[in-house]
Amino acid sequence: MKQNLLAAVLTSLPGRYARALFEAIDGPEERYTTLKDFEQVEILFHDYPHAQEILTSYAINKKHLDAAWQLIGKKIQLTPKFLNFIRLLVQERRVGLLNAIYRFYQMLVFQEKNYRKLDVVSAYSLNEKEKIKLKTELEKIFPESLDITFAIDESLLSGIVVRSDTLMLDASFVTQVRYLAESLREGA
Question: Which pLDDT tens digit goes with each residue over 105-149?
C-alpha cells in the first residue's frame, strides 16, 4: 500500500486507535496474533448478529458491557492485551468503531509483513491454468506477497473483479456495459 494513503487513513479516529494498538503490541508475531483476535470477534459478530448489536450498543451500561466482553474474551480466548483494548473502547464508548479499527490494523500488519490479500471474483469457476496465469499477472502489478482467494459471482456475466483493502480492479462485463451506457448518455 502506498505510504501516503496509509498515513491519511491513519489520521481518522479508527486509524489512530489501530495505530496505537499496533504500536502497543510487541513484534510481528504478537501483532499477527492480535489480528487473529480481531478475526475471532468478526466471526462472533457474523455468527451472532444480535451479539454485535448488544456488544457495540451505547444504550447498555459500561459496567455491564465490560463484564460481557470479559466473559466473551475468556470464552473465545482473546489475548489479554486485545481484551484490554476492547475494554478501553467500552469505557470510551467507541466499541462501534471496532470493525473500522480492525480494517486499519489489518493494513498495518499486512504492510509490516509485505503482504496483500486479494479477492478475485469471476463470473464462472476458473480452472487451475487460468488461476496460475492470473496470479502471475497480479504478481507483476503488486510487489507484495499475495494471498489470493477466488470466488464466483454469476451476476458479473463475464470477466473478473479483483479487490484488495485499498483498491478494486473491475474488468467485468456488467461494469463495461455500465461505462458504455454512461458514455452514450453523455454523448447524446
Answer: 988 888 887 777 888 999 889 999 999 998 888 888 887 788 888
Phi and psi at 170, nearest 5°, equal -115, 105
Beta-carbon contacts of residue 105 (< 8 Å; ≥ 6 apart): 18, 21, 22, 34, 35, 38
Instruction: Please give the Cα distance from 65 to 51 (Å, whole number).
Output: 11
Tell me the three cell numbers of residue 27: 513484534
Q: Name the helix (H) or strand (E) containing 160.
A: strand 159-163
Measuring CA to CA, how many Å separate 67 from each of 3, 55, 61?
39, 10, 10
Q: What are phi and psi of 57, to 5 degrees?
A: -75, 140
Residues 6+ apart with CB under 8 A from 132: none
- Cell match 475471532: residue? 40
Distance (Å, rounded) from C-alpha 77 to C-alpha 178? Answer: 47
DSSP 94-117: -GGGHHHHHHHHHHHHHHHTTEEE
Predicted confidence (pLDDT) per residue in 57-104, tens digit: 888 899 999 999 999 999 999 999 999 999 999 999 898 899 999 988
Longest CA–CA separation in the chain, Å? 63
**How remote is the C-alpha of 145 from its chain's centroid?**
17
